Amino acid sequence: MPLLLLSLAAAPAWAQTSASTGALPAAAAASAAAAAAAPAQQVEITGTRGSDTEQRRQATAAKIVIGREEIERFGDATVGEVLKRLPGVTMPGAPGRGGGPRMRGLGGAYTQLLIDGQRVPPGFSLESLTPEQIERIEILRAPTAETGARAIGGTIDIITREGFRRRVNDLRLAVSQDAGRRSGQVGWTRNDSIDELTYTVSASAFNGRRGSADATLTTETDLASGQRLSEQLEHSSDLSRRQGLNLSSRLQWRLGPSGALTLMPVLFHSRREGRENLDLQQALGATPALYDHAEADRDGRYTLGRLNLQWRQTLAEGWRVELNGGTHAARGRSSSLRQEFDAGHALLRSVEDRSRSNDRSALLNSKLSKLLEGDHSLVAGVEFEQLRRSETRVTAQDNSDPLADFDGDLQASSRRLALYAQDEWSVNPNWAAHAGLRWEEIRTRGDAAVGDVRPDNRSRVLTPLLHAVWKPDPKARDQIRMSLTRSYKAPTLQNLVARPQLSSRWPSSGPNTATHPDRAGNPELRPELATGIDLAFERYLAQGGVLSANLFVRRLRDTIRSTTTLESVGWSPVPRWVSRPRNLGRATTQGLELEAKFRLDQLVDGAPPVELRNNLSLFRSRVDEVPGPDNRLDEQPVVVLNLGADYRLRGTPLTLGGSLHLTPGYRTQVSDVQAREAGRKRQFDVYALWVFDPALQLRLLANNAVPADYRSLASVDQGLVRTQATTLASTDVSWALRLEFKL
Asked: 247, 277, 695, 722: which could join 267 in a potential S-S bond, CB 3.0 to 4.6 Å?
């Protein structure tokens, strides 16, 4: 911890990070253009780029760059496992069982996820990307006009690998074990060139099993007397299997000395199947338990195809034009059957759910850029995207359909249009600035009946963005960054469409509980807007390390949050508890982010050359319309700590490393009657790497090496009765052995 706090001792620090994957800072871009004037230099444009730290240092709008070395360090099987160790990134849920990545502790919808600068398509999963396909990852804590403003928490831009002129064949074989269940994975990547064509092709396949177990205690308590009215304990064990195949390629043709055409096709297919066994015990309560034990089988298949085309050309007088077009299609199929039995194994109730979904999208983006006089770099662009979703869903309880008025075919579409312009310039050797303006319109419509609701939602947002970097001494390695931005979170298609999903636990013919609500959308949602200020101090060490301290604040309007209320509904004769997203008004979030990344012998003479990667984040938030204490934004922890170290033993080909992720438990007051708690989360990962020669290496990895149970809680008050569900989920060590060689 003292080493981590060196970034504060180095200088007074405020915090920021903003982001741009766009043009180089004007000064750097000007020198690049001058070098490109000579024909011999033009070939080098596709050559090596600066180090990760140097790219971060030179960016006017700040970004953190994670390169191949760090991506490959632990030998992770998926990109999601790589992201969990990066500065400012958290994963929800129990260790090793979390969902999508989140920045600054905010829910997933606050984080913008890009691939090669383009928003990911609906239904996209990080499982469809392997680390072998990734060239670098850029973390952007504040938006720019070019990367988009739908990034209140920040942006993660995953840049895929480009082809090399030299031939390279990488083959990776891995076997792993999680809770005694084995999995396997194989991956192959080839890089080569043929005349003016440079290409990279990747293929990977996986087949894995995973088990989990948890216990949930549900109680009802009289708040006046403290007397417990009911108590039920449910034990659950789950065994799942997943299989997948991923094919991707990137083909780039050089069109003379100043142009290129790139084609990027992707195909991904996965299947998941599993069985869950549940046992319910009731120790107290006037109403008998609904069942004694239950079995639930599920099966899901998902196929995604994507094709992107990019054309770049340098025109007369230094203008550079870039056109991006693409299409994507995804198909999902899922089915589940839950059967509940009494103690004599007589069937009491069955619930069957079947769904089919198809997503299609098309996008067309154009961008124009030019280096102007006075060290200005101008970028302007237009973006258009059309999404369309069709879905068929049938829910049957004991062979009857309680959602007959809501089931059937759903047709929904979303159209997005954006215009932007930004200017990046070097004012003088001490100052550089970046200013942008972005206008974006999103319209979402439901074309077919969904009950009695036909959503038609339109939002328009104008976002001015300003970034600056100040170097007190241009020859030194210290700099201060500042940003003033506006960002927003648009309601998702799923949140807008008001199709209900019934709780599988409680029959629709009767009431449910607040801890097992039905779920539905809200077609009246408005976009959530945020005004932000970011300040950062950065010190770059002579041999490549960096110390930084970042301070940020966001003031939010029309905060979107799902709340649970008792409603009269069309799918049940009695009122039911329903969870819906709603606009709750204003909120504020702020935080301090510290990062220290260096080699130990850079700061301590005579110390071993241990690579250290440490970051600490402190968050605080408040939703104005929710009474405190703990009226924080959803799922935002108070503290997130990541510690990492790597050391290559002198005189041997062995490298050892590890990382520790720690998030203390916290409580969230969701509404005046609803609260949630997340328990402490600790994950310790270690690895050992043995390099036989440059073409062959063996890696042993232990994820969650010190497993601990994960606790979560949800409670809702109804009058003087509190319903509370406490879940304890077990976790296990995941071992992996990975052989990597080049052919």
From this structure: 247
Give the model's pLDDT for residue 15: 31
More confident call, 207 vs 108? 207
Residue 473 lies inside a defined structural domain of this protein: no
pLDDT tens figures, 230-250: 999 999 999 999 999 999 999
Residue 492 has what DSSP assignment?
P
Phi, psi of 217, deg, nearest 5: -105, 120
Radius of gyration of the chain (CA): 27
Write out the DSSP string of 200-230. Answer: EEEEEEEEEEEEEEEEEEEEEEETTT--EEE
Q: In whole angstroms, how far apart are CA 22 and each of 147, 330, 370, 489, 617?
A: 8, 29, 12, 22, 27
Question: Residue 416: left (phi > 0), alpha (psi -120 to 50), or beta?
Answer: beta
Query: What secondary structure does DSSP assign to 340-377, as a single string?
Result: EE-TT--EEEEEEEEEEEEEEEEEEEEEEEEEETTTEE
Helix/strand/coil for 327 = strand
When pLDDT is cut at 50, 70 and 90, the band that residue 266 belongs to is: very high
Contact between 144 and 436 (Cβ < 8 Å)? yes
Structure tokens at 735: 């071992």
State the Cα–Cα distance between residues 491 and 580, nearest whole angstrom: 12
Answer positive or negative: Cα dihedral of 75, 76, 78, 79. negative
C-alpha 76/C-alpha 96 separation (Å) is: 12
Distance of alpha carbon 662 from alpha carbon 653, whole angstroms: 31
For residue 737, what is the domain's CATH number?
2.40.170.20
Domains in the chain, number: 1
pTM: 0.86
Q: Does residue 150 fall inside a structural domain?
A: yes
As a whole number of angstroms, the distance between CA 22 and CA 45 comes to 16
pLDDT exceeds cutoff 80 at 167: no
Cα(68)–Cα(48) distance, integer angstroms: 13
Cα separation values, 453 from 559, 563, 666, Å: 23, 20, 37
Distance CA 655, CA 658 (A): 10
Structure tokens at 13: 């620090």
Tokens at residue 625, please? 């319309």
Q: Domain containing 271: what range?
A: 6-458+492-742
The continuous run of DSSP H or E covering 42 comes out as: helix 39-42
Q: Is residue 483 part of a domain?
A: no
What is the enclosing helix (H) or strand (E) of 412?
A: strand 408-426
Tell me which of 27-31, 94-98, 651-655 is least confident. Answer: 27-31
Q: Which of 556, 580, 577, 555 is nearest to 567 (CA)?
A: 577
Whether 520 and 570 have beta carbons less than 8 Å apart is answered as no
Cα 115 from chain centroid (whole Å):
12
Amino acid residing at 410: L
- CB neighbour list of residue 30: distance below 8 Å, 6 or more residues apart: 371, 375, 377, 426
Residue 1 forms part of a structural domain: no
Judged by average pLDDT, the poorest of 24-28, 118-122, 545-549 is 24-28
| Confidence grade of residue 9 (pLDDT, cut at 50, 70, 90) | very low
pLDDT tens digit sequence for 375-421: 899 999 999 999 998 888 888 887 776 666 565 567 888 999 999 99
